[in-house]
Design goal:
Layout (H helix, E strand, L loop, with lengths): L1 H18 L6 E2 L5 E5 L1 H22 L6 H23 L1 E4 L3 E6 L2 E6 L5 E5 L5 E5 L4 E5 L2 E2 L1 H12 L5 H16 L2
Helix pairs in contact: 2-3, 4-5
């Protein structure tokens, strides 16, 4: 009974997170479309990092626990902390001329005129890859407003060039609707 409840809750959370791709993209003060990770990803990773920090602190003061366990727990806390910062910083800003991504390692810009291919991949649980001759941008499907972004891409580049991205969004919508 409890296993079934946990399974239902985790499934419901996954579907709600997936459904965020259907939510409209945010628009900033400059009228640009802003795509960013779902709030559950941002806060979930942060809270998990805090749990590992708390467990590490508790284990530090327990003389029965080996140093390796404390070190491993501390490393998980550190890694999750960096992932949390990365998720908080991560966003994509789209205007009429360019697509800009902001990640923990820096900013990347591709002009619509320079886009050579739009592909889809199952990496990261499903993503859209936008390529130019020199750069590529990967956008996961868990981002809020990804559906609006693909529509915008279709208007800018033509539906035939965006067919892979449209297909992966359509499949995600089909899966979401089958569980509701």
């Amino acid at each position: 009974m409890e296993h079934n409840l946990v399974q239902k809750l985790s499934h419901k959370m996954k579907i709600r997170m997936w459904a965020s791709c259907l939510k409209p993209a945010k628009i900033n003060r400059n009228g640009e479309m802003v795509i960013s990770p779902h709030w559950f990803i941002k806060w979930g990773v942060f809270l998990l990092a805090l749990v590992f920090v708390a467990v590490t602190v508790v284990l530090l003061f327990d003389p029965k626990i080996k140093e390796e366990a404390v070190a491993a727990c501390g490393m998980f806390a550190l890694i999750l902390g960096f992932c949390s910062i990365g998720a908080a910083i991560s966003k994509m800003v789209i205007n009429e001329e360019t697509i800009r991504t902001y990640k923990w390692y820096g900013k990347k810009t591709i002009r619509f005129a320079d886009i050579t291919r739009v592909e889809s991949t199952t990496l990261y649980g499903g993503a859209i890859v936008i390529r130019s001759n020199k750069k590529s941008i990967t956008v996961t499907l868990e981002n809020r407003g990804i559906h609006d972004f693909v529509k915008h891409l279709s208007r800018k580049l033509g539906s035939e060039r965006v067919a892979h991205a449209s297909a992966i969004i359509s499949e995600r919508i089909r899966v979401i609707n089958s569980y509701q």
